[in-house]
Amino acid sequence: MSVNGDPVEILCETQQTLLDCLRDELYLTGTKEGCSTGDCGACSVTLNGRLVCSCLVLGVEANGCDIQTIEGIGSEESLHPLQKTFLEEAALQCGVCTPGFIVAAKALLDEKTDPSEEEIRYWLAGNLCRCTGYDKIIKAVIKAAKIMREENEQRTNRRAR
Amino acid sequence: MSSVRTEELDRLNQETIEEGNRFKVIGTRPIRPDGIDKVTGKANFGADIVLNGMLYGAIHRSPHAHALIKKIDISKALKLEGVKSIITHSDLASLKPTDKNSNVNFFDLARNVLAKDKVLYDGHAIVAVAAISQSIANKAAELIEVEYKVLKPVMDIKTAEKKSSPIIDKNIFTEGLSEPNKKPSNTAKKVEFLLGDPEKTLNEADIVLDRKYSTQTVHQGYIEPHACAASYTKDNQATIWCSSQGAFMVRAYTAKLCGLETSKIKVIPAEIGGGFGGKTTIYLEPLAVKLSQKTGRPVKLVMNRTEVMRATGPTSGGTAHVKLGTDKKGNFIAGLIELKYEAGAFAGSPVGLGCMTAFAPYNLKHVKCTGWDILVNRPKAAAYRAPGAPVAAFAVESAIDEVASILQMDPIELRLKNCATEGTTAPYGVTFDKIGHKECLEAGFKSSHYHKKLKPYQGRGIASGFWFNIGGNSSAEIMINEDGNVTVATGNPDIGGSRASMAMMAAETLGIGMENVKPIVADTESIPYSDLTGGSRVTFATGKAVVEAAMDLIAEMCRRAAKFWKVDPKQVEWTNGNAICIERKDIEPMSMKQIAKIAFKTGGAISGKANINVKKGAGPGFGVHICDVEVDPETGRVTVLRYTAIQDVGKAIHPSYVEGQLQGGAAQGIGWALNEEYVYNKEGNLMNTGFLDYRIPVASDLPMIETILVEVPNSGHPFGVRGVGETPIVPPLAAVANAVSNAIGKRMTNLPLNPIKILSEIG
Ligand code: FES
Ligand code: FES
Question: ipTM greater than 0.90, yes or no?
Fold first, then answer.
């Protein structure tokens, strides 16, 4: 399979989930486990572009797939707008839910550039946060969406010129 | 602490209070120093640690709520290939019921982490296994065979109190009775707080509201399950990596349970993925240490969500009986409350704190608070944000709401008439300094939210809340690096942005920028003892230690500058991040960067430190919440339409993270009020062990949570800080219940207010 653009090959036990494979075999521990039953979203990744709970996907099912994890979204030097707005808006307290929220929110913004507050709340309803009460997370996503739209516009304008 | 520093601190304190908001760093909203690691997935939490040669652990747990262990057979598990070691209670240090201090009973703690000869709740740990892989460890745990004599479970307070019910712990005789019990009982303790003559005064009241309330067991619901790794080496030293609310707490408790000297254990704190009080105790660490000791290899133990729900955390469900007497004008004249809290399987619910907080927001001369600590076959109650206070406040604040409607008075006005202010003596004996309850009520009354019109089936609820806030032992050390930047080390795990507030307080005191400060959470061998992160004490007490360490550092930097300039140290002052020579204008001031350069020439590396025990001045926190709900009469579903949390925070160091505390506490309280509860079947098995059935609020359940920060500075802190973390979970239970009651015109007294309960009221 491919993880964050890199070709990787792993051997896993049949019962190991994609989450186990990422964390225990590839040491990509940015993806978190909060429940292992698909209820908390801490393990969110994209599989061939689709948002999934990696605890509900078997490692073997990911064979040949393209996986994106939090480690593939931005870097210390060039943060993704969502990562920036999460920091600016103080959208994290303990931070254990944060990778899942950023991966899930990115999947939303890749699909929909101008979601309403309600759409964001429903899209992220599968991601649990016990610290923040969601307020600042929602604001961070709204702000990131705006930044991304502006960046897009600038890019289109430049191309048009 | 030298007297000079005290004076300097006092001066700083005076100045800061006078200056109001004229700080450079404090009150701004910089990016938190550990932020990038947390948004890029690099931060290491408890379960993220990987060690060479590591084994994986698993735990065999009881399927019964109450049973005697007759026999444990580990032979099948031992035969499984890849299994390296198996331990039971007998592998822990042998302790006696008298092995306890004011915080913790180690005899109980040891029986909680591994059952002794009786299992006391569904999910109680019995055997721990270490194996070469997680799947082998899990399989081995399944192969453990335990023979039980199953006993009748005692699942609720009513059953526990019945004479005919089984006794959970034969060593428990009700403490605090005027006539001691001769027989063991499920009631562990009675506590009482008395002020004046409430019973007599109640008879003189014009209005007496007499009502009973109940709440259910709820869990803190931190998203990160408990996790740790331990390595025991041949030289009898143990190292533990874990996420907890206090590395020194983990060290002390684990040492006791493993029979090791405290100094033989080193605890390295991982990032902590939420705790809310639930990580102020230990479950896994002694097991990992013992398994590592036996195998000679590092062992990692991680709980899954089911284990977290069945065997850790919850806070007590309870009942409350309130009698509130007022005169015709709404002056409170007497208040009585009787609280009964579930302790879980071991004594120690927070009922005493419930009693102390119940009427604390009000000026009452006649009060009686009685509390009962009651054992049931549920997991041992752990601290949960303002432990004990929310249930008591739910009862008292609901009663006040009802009194307001009887008097046809505005509920904020009624509270304003009776609220505690500076000089009020609380029922638990303390006379308040400057506090901000009144200011919060006034801010609530002035808010636009409070005056918004409501439609049918909509209701508004308001409620106040109080938390003591505490001080305690804190240590801080600030080191100047060769480049002139500083490292600020403390011993308190950063659970919600405390690195940011520590760095900001250090930067403000030193007169430098946030970017020049790197805050770290040190391990137990790199910083002197600190109490755990809890009780809303870190920004207050550890913050105070940081400020004192910075003052210590400033004094040393001034001495170094004096030495370099060859002047009397008295002539050197610290202003705006520079050492200046007051008398000699010809000497150029020296910045920290320059002082770092002369460090080696003037006596070696430079650091400042403070180890303090803050006994006074924590500054109580008061909050007022306003909640609007809409009830769907068809389904009974409650939607929270609008929510405002108002709190006296003393001084907000980083306002965003202070707001975050208010919002997070409110959300947890809303969950407690509307959805969350432990559901057991008749046999005492927990039925909702996951987030699917134990439903905490999700993003689509909540509106934006508005906050109003009221700042009545706390004179006990150099910048006026009050603890802020716990107060916000105290008002929401009643704020929501009052809103729902007002929406449907029926008083709701039993939480959670799920659709079934609401439909049965309006149906
Ligand atoms: S760990 Fe996958 S959804 Fe919780
Ligand atoms: S920030 Fe702690 S769970 Fe979201």
Answer: yes
